[in-house]
From TrEMBL:
The lineage of its organism: Bacteria, Pseudomonadati, Pseudomonadota, Alphaproteobacteria, PS1 clade. One of its GO terms (molecular function) is oxidoreductase activity, acting on paired donors, with incorporation or reduction of molecular oxygen. It comes from Candidatus Micropelagius thuwalensis. Transmembrane segments: none annotated. Keywords: Flavoprotein, FMN, Monooxygenase, Oxidoreductase. It comes from the Bacteria. This is Luciferase-like domain-containing protein. Belongs to the NtaA/SnaA/DszA monooxygenase family. The keyword Acetylation does not apply. It holds the Pfam family Bac_luciferase.
Length: 436
């Protein structure tokens, strides 16, 4: 999800059924209730720390066209959504590039307590200069070095989250003992990026600590995801590629000493459904036509930290230009792979990334049976442990999925009938995360 004026699909705000009250708590609570009605395990917010203003070195096109320009802090929004739900997991993005360990550890553990153990943290590294400038930095950190910093921060945070034993608090009024000091540990972390010393201030939550969501796709990013992630979000074009990537990531996790069953690989999908195939196809045609070319160009510039306004449509990128791309390397790798060109053109980036369209991820269009058939195929063939559902419009896309598709999946016995328990970690089948 996005804490902004549109969904992952930037044209979604143009949909005649999209709600316009995205600056109100009612909007997010309606989404939360739709997700919980469909027994979704988790709603999580992607986020960046700047609006897209790299294309043409200006914000005007993005603002005029509503291309993900409203970006609110997702943490208070999750607290608002938690108040209208009982079981839905809720995750927020906080950047490892510009926030320190104590801030993230305390914010997320507090949120976990206030949601009864339903919180998750979507771990990201910030990727473009616009974010750097907003956060007071001179420019973004080089791609692999961002992950070096993130590794240190994760080690630090896991130490903080493990500082209190679950039974440390005694609350013994008669003897005047609040907690057992032997069950609370201090930390002294001295690294390249972080130096922290102290004692963490928030005891463990009902689920131990928040679930860790990650989406690293490049070589270094994938290594990071498999070391730290529990729910790993990916974007794959088809089942065959999904199987390959899931197998590779599970193998990477094993090589890092992790049980691969402690991670869930969840590729993204769009779903457009209705009572009949014809109705679904009519909905899709409408949704597909909402996108504008400027949407993709603006978002490609944002995510790759490169001004696409400087390139002609059929002009290949030079080796020097490709080497300067310091944004989301997974998209560059995808475009090179799918185009078969070591020096793709701007057109190749538009065609093969799907950025700004409902083709960025596989789009399943059909009646409930057809949609269920496709999702079941991905699951049974080993391409997915679960799915991240992109919305063509909000809250309607979630409501329609819950109304039409979920009952069909439940009938087949491949979708839970109810939540397993009160915590997100329990509902996902995860035990307490290992100490680093």
């Amino acid at each position: 999800m996005q804490a902004q004026n549109c969904s992952n699909y930037p044209a979604s705000w143009r949909h005649h059924q999209s709600a316009g009250d995205f600056l109100t708590p009612d909007y997010y609570q309606r989404i939360a209730r739709a997700l919980e009605d469909g027994k979704f395990h988790l709603g999580f917010f992607d986020d960046r720390l700047a609006l897209p203003d790299i294309y043409g070195a200006d914000h005007k096109e993005a603002v005029k066209n509503g291309i993900r320009v409203v970006k609110m802090d997702p943490v208070p929004i999750l607290a608002t959504m938690a108040m209208s739900t009982k079981n839905l997991g809720l995750a927020a993005t906080i950047s490892t590039t510009y926030y320190n360990a104590f801030h993230i550890a305390r914010t997320m553990m507090t949120l976990d307590h206030m949601t009864g153990g339903r919180a998750g943290w979507n771990v990201v590294t910030s990727l473009n200069d616009s974010e750097a400038f907003n956060m007071g930095a001179a420019g973004t950190i080089e791609h692999d070095r961002r992950y070096d910093r993130a590794d240190e921060l994760m080690t630090n945070i896991i130490d903080m989250w493990g500082a209190w034993d679950s039974d440390a608090i005694l609350f013994d009024k008669e003897n005047g003992v609040f907690a057992d000091p032997e069950k609370v540990r201090s930390y002294d972390f001295q690294g390249e990026w972080f130096q922290t010393r102290g004692t963490f201030t928030v005891p463990p939550s009902p689920q131990g600590h928040p679930v860790i969501v990650q989406a690293g796709q490049s070589g270094r990013g994938r290594q990071f995801a498999c070391e730290w992630g529990e729910v790993i979000f990916t974007i794959q074009n088809n089942v065959e590629r999904g199987v390959q990537v899931r197998n590779e990531m599970r193998e990477e996790a094993s090589q890092q000493g992790r049980d691969p069953d402690t991670i869930a690989i969840c590729p993204a999908v769009y779903v457009t459904t209705g009572e009949t195939q014809a109705i679904a196809e009519d909905k899709y045609a409408y949704v597909n036509n909402l996108a504008k070319p400027i949407d993709g160009l603006t978002l490609l510039s944002e995510v790759l930290n490169f001004d696409f306004a400087t390139k002609d449509y059929d002009e290949p990128f030079t080796d020097e230009e490709l080497g300067s791309i310091n944004g989301l390397r997974g998209i560059l790798d995808k475009v090179v792979r799918l185009s078969g060109k070591s020096n793709p053109t701007l057109k190749d980036f538009v065609d093969h990334s799907g950025r700004g369209t409902v083709h960025e991820a596989p789009h399943i269009v059909g009646d409930p049976k057809y949609v269920a058939d496709e999702l079941e195929k991905w699951f049974i063939e080993g391409a997915a442990d679960g799915f991240v559902l992109f919305a063509s419009h909000t809250p309607g896309a979630y409501e329609e999925f819950s109304r039409y598709v979920v009952p069909e999946l439940q009938r087949r016995g491949i979708y839970h009938d109810d939540y397993a328990g009160p915590t997100l970690r329990g509902n996902l089948g995860f035990s307490s995360y290992r100490q680093k």
